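[retry 2/3] Amidohydrolase family protein: previous attempt timed out, resubmitting with same input.
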Amino acid sequence: MSSLMRAAMLCLAALSAGGCAAGTRYDLVIRNGTVYDGTGAPGRAATVAVKDGRIARVADPRARLNGGATIDARGLAVAPGFIDPHSHVPESLPQMTGAMLDVQDLSQGVTTILASPDGELSPTQMRWLIGELERRGSGPNYACYVGHNGIRSAVMPGQRRAATDAEVVAMAAQVRDGMAMGCVGFSTGLMYDPGMFATEAEVQALARAVIPFGGSYDSHTRDPGFRMLESESEAVRLGRATGVPVKLAHLKAVGLINKGRIGDVIAMVEGAQADGVAVVADQYPYDGATLRYARELFLTADGKVPAADALAAALADPAQREAMRAATEGGAGGFSWVKAVGYGSMRIVDAPGAPALVDRNLELLAREWGVAPFDALARLATGYRDVRLTLGSIDEDDIRTLIVKPWVMISSDGFYADAATLAAGKAHPRSWGSFARVLGHYSRDLRLFPLEEAIRKMTSLPADHLGLADRGRIAPGKAADIVIFDPATIDARATYLEPSAQATGVVTVLVNGVVAFDRGKPTGATPGRFVRRQPLAP
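[retry 2/3] Amidohydrolase family protein: success.
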């Protein structure tokens, strides 16, 4: 074989692998990494080229690609940017100064976050948020659900009752308005005011409004503490009745009464899937839900949280104490954490000066003390300093039973952890650690699933469910949202005591082809943009 023929054959081979494109100059070339494309396929050696904010080529590592800049990813994983399908970070924009750099997400490789879960935002509120983010700039991309509670508050302000037919029609029009803006679907927070007053028929009618747009339904279900299976079943019934794809938000089995029962929910979901109902879930990998100081769980008769300096005096007065007990346990006509989750779902995560109390369940502690749970909570609030509790304790075995399911994606349910949030004791480690914890602890260390499956749960699975057609995969034509990380060192460092400790192992993050995070810190770039759901193909 002549040298000329050999060269021609080598070029043909390179062309088939994506190389030998004479004259093509890419903006960025990532070499020597192991590429995980997001589909669940094992990693492979490949070179990734980026041009004009998109992945232009995924080539054989031998291909000679010319880039204006080069990243050497030797020894590192190259994956699609992670998608957080349940985030409250964008809603914290009013308390931020300047751009939403969102270090807590970028430092874990998250490049797209979903705002307005739990039914938060109406279309009017979302327009303000999107406009403000475009003006100030954002590190990651952001997408939105159109929120039931936001819409209900706009259409029927202050009303704690079932909606009339006319009100449902008005709310459905707002759902369509949000979907026309590009929202991915309709979300509810049925545990919260005012969503708790909606009938199942109302919710189904509003969910139907997303059908022409190909949207989905996301539900913080009605009573996951005391009626877990019934509450999750309500969301699945909606999927059966309407055909709208359903996602069970931050699915978990909380408290003593639900310990070991996540299998019942799994059986229900998989039974529905076998019948053709599209049902998925998201999960954050921590053994506790939202955090509060013990003193914040009390309500006065008018439904308000008493000031810290007034609480001890009120509890010392027998009449006021009984009135507060009734309001705290009954909800005072509105929302109460004790009413919503119960004492058996509360576990102490921090007790300065009394470390023996940490990890104690409140209901079991009350039994040990020989008092009612309300009285045990009162003792914690007034007799100890700054006791904090998680209001949704979760058994670790239940976390592991659920997280391995192929229809479960990873989320954070995270909030923006600014100085005020940290000082208030409400910051949760899931905001800074969820994605890194799954990759490091549950995949690498516990070996519950391989790395490629962990990545799929964070990329193509949410992208496909949410209709983010140009995200979630390393493939030509997709948006260049890319995370480069070290599989051997990626891990969460955030804890209940240090909830804003930054994760380790993420080296570089690209958002729309721009390096937004590099070598442990944000670059200051704000390439993130509002990502719209892709319309249905004609």
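[retry 2/3] Amidohydrolase family protein: The chain has a mean pLDDT of 93.
[retry 2/3] clearing retry counter.
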